Amino acid sequence: LQIVRTCRSTGIEMPDSPKFYEQARKNDTVEMVLKRIADKCDRDGIKCDLVFVALFSSEQYAQVKSCGDITFGLVTQCVLPKTISDVAIKKSYSTMLNIAMKINMKIGGINTKLLEDEVYDIELMNALDNHLYKNNALVIGVDVVHPSAIETHLPSIASVVGNVDTKVTKFHASVKIQPAKQELITGFIEQFSERLVEYLDVNGTAPKNIIVYRDGVSEGQFMQILEEELPALRRACKSFATNYRPLITFIVVQKRHHARFFCCDEAAARGRGKNIPAGTVIDRVVTSPDEYDFFLCSHHGIQGTSRPTRYHVLFDESNMDANALQSITYYLCHLYGRCARSVSIPAPVYFADLVCARARYHVLAALNSGLVEKYSDEDSNSSSSSSSSSSSSKAE
């Protein structure tokens, strides 16, 4: 009831009570319980927008997501005993708000967007209009996650996330497995093509600008990216239409570095950690004299010293000036729908990381259930796709 009230207070339509409850029986598996829910919905003609799943432990999470996403096509929201306690007993508003934001995204809602009538930064609005909105920009987030040294039976997972609307608020994803420890994406053409096709299906027009934020790449791999992944994107565009040649901007996002910045004027520092303000850009003196790079601290330092993100612009056909690109990047850091604050990296990159994490649960669940014995390189042709956010907010 507390969550329902919170959802309604944030504009999400929710009924007073769920359509029905399903209690797990003795010796039931997660798959058995979700199957009964799916069967009842099919039998009674119930449109199931969301299934709340109360877990005894986080160990069941992988199986819930695997069965819900792949086997039965059910959207699930898992809650642990501690979460239930925070909501029911402690009445923690922050916990309830976090759950409400997740629910809204899962049922197709938009949590964050730019209120254009209230923006007083003319430079930001010009950058968004000229390079995103008017040119139907497709903003791509790319990430690859690898198994640990002891997880020799697991593959690497590559995800490509892109917006499907012209306001860059709704993101969908394509995800594939590939040989372990391989950073360059083997299925780049197919994954990019999926993002292009879906963008065209939704908007009726192809993007004129494509901005790619690539995560997880070291400086020693920049040339490989330019020689392999950038041409793969070009081939995907050409396969889409022979004369289709959008303007491409390719940016590498780096979070793992040792650079930290502090305010010369202590009065300008923020918080107990005396951090630089969110939105601070450093693009001189400490940046490379030969490359196009900059640091952006886009988040508020809540605890400890803020670590800015470093951006390397490897390729830019749109000829954006530095201020425009930095403004767009900072704007994208406000679109992560699970958080009411700006985050440290652009939302498409964050979503790409989440997609990889979800796909990892799918792989682990398949291994644990015996559907596959272990990963082999032949499995790299397998693929699935997953949604990060859609449009209207409505729940039943």
Describe this structure in words.
GO terms for molecular function: nucleic acid binding. This is Piwi domain-containing protein. There is one protein chain. 34% of the residues lie in helices and 17% in strands. The chain is α/β, with parallel strands linked by helices and 396 residues long. The protein has two domains: 105 residues, Rossmann fold (3-Layer(aba) Sandwich); 272 residues, Ribonuclease H-like superfamily/Ribonuclease H (Nucleotidyltransferase, domain 5, 2-Layer Sandwich). The strands form two sheets. Strands 8-9-10-7-6-3-4-5-11 form a nine-stranded mixed sheet, with helices on both faces. Helix 1 crosses helix 5, helix 3 packs across helix 10 and helix 6 packs across helix 9. The chain is globular.
Describe the structure in brief.
The protein is of the alpha/beta class.
